[in-house]
Amino acid sequence: MNRLVDATSPYLLQHAGNPVDWWPWSDEAFAEAKRRDVPVLISVGYSACHWCHVMAHESFENEQVGALLNDNFVSIKVDREERPDVDAVYMTATQAMTGQGGWPMTVFATPDGTPFFCGTYFPRTNFVQLLQSVATAWREQREAVLHQGAAVVEAIGGAQAVGGPTAPLDAPLLDAAAAKLASEYDETNGGFGGAPKFPPHMNLLFLLRHHQRTGDPRSLEITRHTAEAMARGGIYDQLASGFARYSVDAHWTVPHFEKMLYDNALLLRLYTQLWRLTGDPLARRVARDTARFLADELHRPGEGFASALDADTEGVEGLTYAWTPAQLVEALGEEDGRFAADLFAVTDDGTFEHGTSVLRLARDVDDAAPEVRTRWRQVVGQLLSARDTRPQPGRDDKVVAAWNGLAITAIVEFQQVAALYASPQDEDANLMDGVTIVADGAMRDAAEHLATVHLVDGRLRRVSRDGRVGEPAGVLEDYGCVAEAFCALHQLTGEGRWLTLAGGLLDTALAHFAAPGGAFYDTADDAERLVARPADPTDNATPSGRSALIAGLVAYAALTGETRYREAAEAALGTVAPIVGQHPRFTGYAAMTGEALLSGPYEIAVATDDPTGDPLVAAARRHAPPGAVVVAGRPDQPGVPLLADRPLVDGRSAAYVCRGFVCQRPVTSVEDLVAELGGAG
Question: Which of 197, 398, 436, 492 maximizes the CB count within 10 A of its CB?
């Protein structure tokens, strides 16, 4: 029976034609397992996952495996991106049993959902043996299986516990976190740790804010070096932009080719802020082109941003992206082919498989002579046209609320910074204008889609596809990321609607996700009950739900002056602070928000009749201290608390600067405004 055909998840739809009698995650599936008295196989993955595809082809498309599963198990297929709560619980179990985790995740559970054996990818021969062994153990060693399950659940409960130690996230702790990151830094290649190497976007956003506050040159050096190494490496698509999920090596050369919305949103934010603070031309280019990638490749017109581009093309990793010197010559001609091979480090030996190379930028182009930049752009255009004739990776079109929130926030910041540096004299001014226009349209589409489709009866839903909202309830990261995005959009547009929506989401989170001692659970108090209630405080591929909510609370408190939201943020940060001190690589978003609170954050209101062109607005955004909020518009504009009772001064625009709800006198000149903001770095 094909139960997946109506799923909103492309990952589930990929398995709809398997000989396996799949069930979606549902009470009915577990009831069926209880009725038949058989164990449950829970298979968790996502559509852009390479090894998920491999296991699907080897096992789940195989008739023998399908028959074995159908006779002895109830098989449940889960999209980890659609049900992060389910994924979190069973990933904790997998890590407790095996010491590691990953996808595809393969879990065997009792009919009440208690896991008793966990793993990841299994080749077909091993998987068949495992299925036979588990089926036999269930029939003949039931007591031992149940005992094992009880031990795993106990381990999960301990790992997901709340109510641990707390501490203030103060300046010494944030300074220590920055110092520990510096001690773990890869001086040669940038980033942290060895292979595989993931883009440390949240850590670098924290280090940028730390540099702003302290003037520490080391924090800025680490950020600039890593940003340049990633942008010149194979992890960055040198033709169409967009970052891959990670590098399989320690030096950013060969990527795992999937491109995720969340990575590109957070990296857009990183390069935008690096551009704002330094004027770096590489950061400017990468920010612009990453915004274009989001708008061109992931935006769904009239909806939000799609989740990912696949790692594979027609089952082959890198098929779309890799080149040989001969292919460059074929696409460009002899002379330009040799130029491109030198520029992009394409050799006869290759850096990837079968003598192919992933394009890397081996020469500086951002500060090169005009004729070199012109030739580089022409070569890129021709190669991209040639690459477009190749088979292309699939796209996971589902819209995830949290990730769209990250993208909205990033594009808002990009729009604001692009306006600061707009100049008709720039050689690519028209390109920058075009990107800002299409990115703005995509961002507003996404915001409207979240507000009108994902928000159902005052509660967020996690996913949608083709304009149809899915059933999974929003988790804490959805509420936090979307609230932060709506606060950012309020600052960009001056529209009170977005602030009202943000407040509603935060109130819901405070009412339904709160845990003892200022912490938060990742699922609501009225959500589906799992074998444990997840409450992970660490930032991993995306901000934790707790970190995301803290960021939304801090921004909303600054924009409204309502102190209870700040108090909730401070209490929640206190639950993460001990981890910041010990493991800063896994608390980047929390530490970044801690820098905002330590800074103030500043609240900057510019009373003006020209919120888009006023020099005071530009100065406020250019010199904004860490985490500052900036609102501009007519005095006493409805729905904009920061503009209440803030008139023009003698008919002139005026900037009102407050810090921690304590305000300075209004200023009317750029020089005075910059002086007031200068104390924060």
Answer: 398
Q: Concatenate the DSSP letters of all residues of 571-585 into one string.
A: HHHHHHHHHHHH-GG
Distances (CA, A) of 355 to 172, 251, 348: 50, 19, 6
Residues with Cβ within 8 Å of 24's Cβ and at least 6 positions away in sequence, in order, are: 3, 4, 7, 12, 76, 77, 78
DSSP 478-532: HHHHHHHHHHHHHHHH--HHHHHHHHHHHHHHHHHSB-GGG-B-SS-TTSPP-SS
Give 218-244 pLDDT, tens digit per residue: 999 999 999 999 999 999 999 999 999
Structure tokens at 2: 């094909």
How far are the Cα atoms of 239, 325, 339, 348, 370 from residue 335, in angstroms, in the given order? 19, 12, 6, 17, 19
The Cα 236–Cα 201 span in angstroms is 14
Q: Compute the Cα dihedral for 552, 572, 656, 215 and give only its sign.
A: negative
- Nearest Cα neighbor of 610 from 643, 592, 632 is 632
* 79 and 47 Cβ atoms separated by less than 8 Å: yes
The pTM for the full model equals 0.93
Question: Residues 273, 681: contact at Cβ < 8 Å?
Answer: no
Looking at residue 505, its amino acid is L
Closest CA to 546 of 554, 556, 536: 536
8 touches 464 (CB < 8 A): yes
CB distance 34 to 28 below 8 Å:
no
> Cα separation of 294 and 541, whole Å?
18
- The alpha-helical segments, DSSP class H, found in 141-280 are 142-159, 171-183, 201-214, 217-232, 261-278
Supply the DSSP string of 111-166, one letter for each residue. Answer: TTS-EEEEES---HHHHHHHHHHHHHHHHH-HHHHHHHHHHHHHHHHHHT------
Sequence letter at residue 444: R
Structure-token match 């641990």, residue found:
164
Give, in order, the Cα–Cα distances in Å from 528 to each of 73, 86, 152.
23, 10, 20
Q: Are strands 463-465 and 395-400 parallel, antiparallel or unpaired?
A: antiparallel
CB crowding 222-240: b at 16 or more within 10 Å, else e: bbbbbbbbbbbbbbbbbbb
Contact 398, 463 (CB under 8 A): yes
Distance between CA atoms of 283 and 40, rounded to whole angstroms? 49
Residues 6+ apart with CB under 8 A from 241: 286, 289, 290, 292, 293
**Cβ atoms of 246 and 252 closer than 8 Å:** no
**316-364 per-position pLDDT tens digit:** 888 999 999 999 999 999 999 999 999 999 999 999 998 999 999 999 9
Distance CA 504, CA 498 (A): 10
Structure tokens at 151: 């031990």
Cβ neighbors of 610 (< 8 A, separation 6 or more) are 653
pLDDT in tens, 194-218: 999 999 999 999 999 999 999 999 9
The closest of 284, 189, 590, 224 to 216, measured between CA atoms, is 224
What's the rounded Cα separation, in Å, for the pair 249 and 243? 15
